[in-house]
Amino acid sequence: MTVPLVRIRRLNEQPVVARGSYVLYWMTAARRLEANFALDRAIELAREKRRPLLIFEALRCDYRWASDRLHQFILEGMEVNRRKCKSAGVTYFSYVEPRPGAGKGLLEMLAHEACAVVTDDAPMFFLSRMRACAAARIEVCLEAVDSNGLYPMWATEKVFPTAFSFRTHLQKTLRPHLDELPLDQPFERLTAKRAPLPEGIEKRWPSQPSLPLLPIDHTVGPAAFTGGSEAAQARLKHFLQNVLPSWPDSRNQPEVDGSSRLSPYLHFGHIGSHQVFAAVAKQEDWTPAKLGKSNGGKKIGWWKMSPQAEAFVDQSVTWREIGFNFASHRSEAPDDYETLPRWALATLAKHENDPRPVVYSTAQLDEAQTHDLLWNASMNQLKREGWMHGYLRMLWGKKILEWSATPREALKSMEQLMNRYAVDGRDPNSYSGIFWVLGRYDRPWGPERKIFGTVRYMSSANTAKKVQVTRYIENYQSPLRSILR
Fold first, then answer.
1. Using CA atoms, how far apart are residues 293 and 314, in angstroms rounded to an integer?
2. Which pLDDT does position 1 carry in this prediction?
3. Residue from 164, 178, 150, 443 nearest 316 by CA
4. How far apart, in whole angstroms, are the C-alpha atoms of residue 119 and residue 242?
5. In a 10 Å sphere around its CB, with 0-12 CB exposed, 13-18 middle and 19+ buried, how is residue 201 labelled?
6. pTM, whole model, 2 decimals?
7. I want to staple 97 with a disulfide (CB 3.0 to 4.6 A). Which of 103, 216, 346, 430 is the partner?
8. How many C-beta neighbours within 10 Å does residue 458 have?
9. CA Rg, the chain, in Å?
C-alpha cells in the first residue's frame, strides 16, 4: 500500500461495493491534487476495483463566519483543481451551495453509485461532525485519511502539554514516517477512464459560485492574497528564495516580509506540510540519512540543517502539529476554556476579579477602537488583509486578555475576531495560538501580576522596543481595504 495504515481510519462498517461505478474522493480539507494521502488512498481503491475516480469538492454556505473572504479563497482553489483535473482527464465535480440546506442528500447520491468513499481526516471546525453524520448515512465503506502533517495524528495516543515534550517525542519517533511520502503525481497511477456522474445530479443540485448572490457575510471582503495550490507554490518559492535566508531574525519584524505566510494555504489544504518540508530539504540538500539522534528536545541541532532552516522546521512541524495532536485526541470543543492547564485555570481564576485598566467590548475591538495604536494597527491588518503578523498575534491576544472583563470573555473575543477575519482561522494551529495567550503550551511566569497572575505578560511598549513598528502603525492605522490583490 502507498498510504500507511496509521493514516487510515474506517468510519463505518459498510463494505466496499464491487458493483460501484467509481471510487469517490470527498475533498473537504486537503484541497489539492498533489502530496495528498487521501487522494492517494482513493486512487489505490480505484486501481484495486478497476474503476475510475470521481473527485467531489463542495462548499456550504451556512458555516459560521462564512464570508466573501473565505468563500473566494476556496473558490480560487476550486478553479485550479477543476483545470488540473480537466487536463488529466479526471472527473471533478464541485458544488457551491446556493442557500442553506440546498446540498442535503448530494453526498449520499454520489456515494450510492460508488464502490467506496474516501475523505480527509482533519480535526478542524465542523468537519469532524460532518464526517460523523456522513458515516451514519452512507451505505458504502467510508474512510478518513490523515494528510495533515509529517507525523501521523494516530501514531500516538498521548496529548502533549508542551512543545518541548512533543518535540522530544518527535525526535524519538518521527524518522520512519519521513520515508512515507504522498505522491507528487498521483494521477499517473490511474488506469480507468473518466467517471460518469449520476444522471440528473447537476440539474438537481445546481451550483452557485457567484459571491454576490450567496447568503454569506459580504462585509468581510476578499483577502489580500489569492487562494489555490498554484498561489501556494508561488508563495513557498518566494519564501525559500527571499525570506528563509534571513529567518528567524526577520520573522519577528512586522515591517519586513519576514514570515512564510503559508498558514492560509496550509489551513485550506492548498499546500501540504510534506510539500513545504520537501522544498526546504531540497534547498538544504538534506536527506533523512542526515538526521541526528535525539538531543533531548532541543530546538536546534537535531535536523542537521542550517540554523534558519531548523528554526523554520521547528515552527512548521513541532508547533503546527502539536495543535493537531490536541485537536484529534480531545473530545472537547476547540473553544472549551476548561481545557487549559490546571495552573493556568487556577491563576486566571485567582485574578478574575482584578480591576481592568479598561474594558472593551468585542464590537469595539472589531472596530479597532482602543487607546493602543499598535494593537489597532494589528487588528486593522487582520481586517484589511485576512492575515496578521505572527509576533503581533501574541501581543494582540495578550491585550485582549488584559482588556476583557474575564478570561472567558477574552477567549470569546479572540475566537470571534480571528475566525471572522483570518483566512487561517478556525484551525488547530490558530486555536493553539489563542489558547497560548491563556497559558496552553506554556509555563508559569513571574512575577505574579494583576489580571494575568502567572500567565505570560506582554505589553505594546516592550514590543515596540524589541521590533520596529513605526511604519507598521502608519501603514495600518486605517482599516481601509488593501489595494493588493
1. 16
2. 63
3. 150
4. 36
5. middle
6. 0.96
7. 103
8. 18
9. 23
